[in-house]
Amino acid sequence: MIQYIADIEQACIALKGLVSESEIGLDIETTGLDPILDSIRLVQIATPLKTYVIDMYHVPTSVLNPLLTGGPIKVIHNSKFDAGFFYQAPDGVMVEPIFDTMITDQVLHHRGYARSLKDLSKEYLDIDLDKEKQTSDWGVEHLSEAQIQYAAQDADVLLPLKHIQEEQAMELQITSVVNLENRLVPAICWMERSGVSLDRHLWDELVKSAEAKAVQLKEKLNLSVAEHTSSGLDLFGNAIVSVNWDSPAQVKKLLSDLGVKVENTRHSTLEANRGKHPVVALLLDYRGAAKKVSTYGTDWKKHVHPTSRRIHANWVQIGSATGRMSCKNPNMQNLPREAAYRNCFRAAPNCVLIKADYEQIELRLAAEIAPDPRMKKAFYEGRDLHSVTASYLLGKSTTETVTDSQRQMAKAVNFGLIFGMGARGLSSYAQNNFRVQMDENEAAEIRRRYFEAYSGIKNWHELQSSKLETRTILGRHRILEGERDYTNRLNSPIQGSAADGLKLALINLWETRHQVNAYPVLTVHDEIVIETSKELAGKAAKWLKRCMEDGMREFLREVPVAVDITTKESWG
Q1: Which of 249, 264, 299 is the endpoint of a domain?
Q2: Less packed terminus of the chain by CB within 10 Å, N or C?
Q3: What letter does residue 256 receive in the DSSP assignment?
Q4: Domain span at residue 543?
Q5: Please, are residues 153 and 193 in contact by the beta-carbon 8 Å criterion?
Q6: Does residue 23 sit in the same domain as residue 167?
Q7: Which band of pLDDT confidence, cut at 50, 70 and 90, is reported for residue 349?
């Protein structure tokens, strides 16, 4: 049964009865996709016996607030979208508690991508939802009967869908993970609606600099080729070179002519051959500059919202099978780590950005999950694990000084070997990511010494190698098959546990937000950035640190949590 409501008094009567429900299906139709510029047109509320379709052109959003905050569980598909509109509305509030059928489906099937309500309705309920009216004009004054019927059907399927998903979660023993993800939705919505400020002048200067550097490096490449081949110079001293540096086929042929035989021109391949000819290093530098121009060019400014003057990126709550978050439009997690780029993201006037990141969190989790007594002891004593590892690999006593280059080598080994790299992979990984040279034989010997030192890690690798299902400390699961999934058998419990801990930290921020006037603006895997006034910086920093420590302590019981805090006017 459907009841269409376009009157405040009728809405109040209906909502008075709904507040006592234990759960309701909730859906909205909007005039567009932007919570700042667009508005809610219809709100659909489903109970087991009746579905209400409320016309928000005639009912203020504030009338719904007692139902939206507290009260029954709101069962929503893609709840961040709905919550974003309610939160942005005049006198708006955050919707909670929430049960998100889209997010729960991802948890059940360990998917790094989301599925539509139509797909879920067919799979779980064998119901074919008609989505013909989804793209109709919801901004018209008088909606058709077909539009009202369409709106109601989406809300109708939510409660039965939730019940099936809850049963499956219990069978898989992942209810705690489902609860974590549903508690997280308001925090993600809060961060997304807060946004972050981009200094467009600094960004423009950075783009110009990257463009000039790319041109300069291309000229150096041409001159270098001219010096080492039969190519010459023109009357103006410019190199006469016909190669297209953006063409892999032409670059491969040129390198072959210069005596550098490569199977392909991928970054890892070129890094492995960096020292074989000056052109290779120049080519890598040129590609880096060219990528910055194409990926982080002037187009980035289109993401600055015309009203808020801030970037409101789309934070994807489950962006990979491990449970990690991702980001798009734009991807704030993939920015170069160079200070120049991060400096472009700045606090509002008289405010600061406070950045907190977990120190060596994946290694700490590996030490606990394995468990490895030697690694746990190093963390418990507050020692730098990379320096400790360097001492073991080089046969040094723990009192001897470890050089920066030796620590860098150990850093490559720690991060490479906890996820199961062989000698060849370690050799390539060390060169490509840390500029550490080691041939395959050296890598094999280092690998032997590493697992001799950390026998707990070795034993855990052997145990994991035969498992078809992995679990994080919280219980997030992932089904794996085949030998090629060996790395994922090691990666998923560690990376997934790190993701769970960070998510709980964000939940802690949201659920204790009344303690300080501050809000999250960014997160990158092991890092959270908040914004607050300069006057509250000290209080906010303590709050952030406490929330992050408490979140990860749920999973690190025998290894201490360490959080590093910095306060600046920019992210850099």
Answers
A1: 299
A2: N
A3: H
A4: 313-360+497-568
A5: no
A6: yes
A7: very high
